[in-house]
Amino acid sequence: MDPWSEIEGKRAHDPIFQNYFSQNCRQSVDGFCKKRSADAAVARAERCIRVLGPIIVGAGPSGLAVAACLKEKGVDSLVLERSNCIASLWQLKTYDRLSLHLPRQFCELPLMPFPAYYPIYPSKQQFVAYLESYAARFGICPTYNRTVVCAEYDEQLQLWRVRTRATGIMGEEVEYVSRWLVVATGENAEVVLPEIDGLDNFKGTVMHTSSYKSGGAFAGKRVLVVGSGNSGMEVCLDLCNHNANPHIVVHILPREMLGQSTFGLSMWLLKWLPVHVVDRILLLIAQTMLGDTAQLGLKRPTIGPLELKSLSGKTPVLDVGTFAKIKSGDIKVRPAIKQISGRQVEFMDTRLEEFDVIVLATGYKSNVPFWLKDRELFSEKDGLPRKAFPNGWKGENGLYSVGFTRRGLMGTSVDARRIAHDIEQQWKARGKHPGVLL
């Protein structure tokens, strides 16, 4: 049996790949796919598969949320994931002690709450278990080990062509064709590595937090953590608890204020007051509880935490115990790095110190500009939607984005519901006019 016949046979028994095109449209797409396969036959067993429902790129929380909302409306989708599991960032690239920074009610995905017995701030393991249960409940079975290398809209076919490569040096290439494309790779697809003079020649160990698991391996070592966001602060606390000697190069807020979560209090105040007023209230309470953080080397930005989050996407640090270690001197705060020579680090205040390990808690970035051939919905500069929330979820020609709101899982839930509703309307219109290629 030739490869194309084999694909057709499999498709006939798979609801995701059912034929919903009119006879003329089917012939044009089939002809295109067969030509693609014939052209690539010499080099590799390349395939072209027509997909009935939307293609969702990314099997993290955002991709799962859209797939579930679509499934509830009777629309199947194909979820493509470059790793070998769902929520690969959470499962493979986070440290052991990680937990949700916001209360669970602000982190639920659509249509399924967290189990009632979960704590207010679920652990990494509990969150992953929740996501696995979520996928099982809605019958979401991603196609794993498929990296999208190119996605572009074909004006002639009026379809999205999504080219993928299987994991491995000589991975098989498969092209999927669909009316809809949902970009769910998120804001944290690729690590961000800082440019520091001499970092490449550091004589000790250098790692990004995506490779850090526990401070147990660094007991007794001098560790410099670069980046003072939530990850950097938590890594410092973890190192301190494992008898390492951490140093850290912000808005820092107590995780709870006035008997409730800081985030919950913020959301409640925003119902009645403008952002700048809420920022002033939060900073006043924080100063009362934490004192003058500048004396410890933690200088506050010139604008408030909520406004900063809205403008730049930078999340304010919610303290989980690190601040007490800084006050006690167990964790040392240092200014920016000027340069590195051997194991010696020179800081901007001219201080020189030696370190065994450097942990880069410098975050992640979007990788959308590297594979999506569309410059209308997403910015080439940062790989985020050009329009701010709540207007960045939909582009042209059946293109959507989810997980790019800079508002965490709350923003994901809002956009997932919108996307599912929008596609459902087109799906129903197709049912009324089956001869029309939507």
From TrEMBL:
Its cofactor is FAD. One of its GO terms (molecular function) is NADP binding. Keywords: FAD, Flavoprotein, Monooxygenase, NADP, Oxidoreductase. The keyword Ribosomal protein does not apply. GO terms for biological process: auxin biosynthetic process. Pfam families: FMO-like. Its EC number is 1.-.-.-. It is an enzyme of class 1 (oxidoreductase). It catalyses: indole-3-pyruvate + NADPH + O2 + H(+) = (indol-3-yl)acetate + CO2 + NADP(+) + H2O. It comes from the Eukaryota. Coiled coil: none annotated. The keyword Flavoprotein applies. Belongs to the FMO family. This is Flavin-containing monooxygenase. It comes from Oryza rufipogon.
